[in-house]
Design goal:
single chain, 151 residues, mainly alpha, 58% helix, 0% strand
Length: 151
């Protein structure tokens, strides 16, 4: 169902219509509804419901500033790649869900041929916590998701 569009069309079918159409307005008028396009904060809420996580739990586990996280939830801010990965690891989201959030935020999805991304994919598949993933990245001499603050 993830490839389904309005009117029951698959993404492939819609792509074919777009290629054959004489005018873009014909395609958008008939097959796209701005209100139903996926939105980052809506999908994040969906995942939080799925994994029974509250904003407070995500904030606490991820170390993301409270006000910034609520701006993300309200759609006022779109987080960067590392923040998204931190949130996903705290849920814990699947690789597919993580990549969907990255896509919705217009960030690059995890790509196995990139060594750091491969390490993050490994961590997601092994169900590492955010802290375990960060430590793993550091041990593999890759950029961590965040830097520990020392007092």
């Amino acid at each position: 169902m993830k490839n389904q569009q309005k009117n029951g069309l698959t993404t492939s079918q819609l792509l074919s219509i777009i290629k054959k159409s004489g005018h873009f307005s014909e395609v958008t008028a008939a097959y796209h509804d701005k209100e139903t396009e996926p939105v980052f904060c809506h999908f994040l809420y969906h995942l939080m419901d799925k994994y029974a996580k509250t904003p407070k739990e995500i904030i606490s586990a991820s170390g993301i500033e409270r006000s910034y996280f609520y701006h993300i939830l309200s759609g006022q801010k779109t987080p960067g790649r590392n923040i998204i990965l931190r949130i996903c690891l705290c849920l814990p989201a699947t690789l597919s869900e993580t990549n969907q959030l990255l896509r919705l935020a217009h960030q690059g999805t995890l790509y196995a041929k990139v060594r750091r991304d491969a390490a993050v994919i490994f961590a997601i598949e092994k169900k590492y916590t955010m802290q375990q993933t960060n430590d793993f990245l550091i041990s593999e001499q890759e950029l961590p998701l965040y830097r520990e603050e020392h007092s």
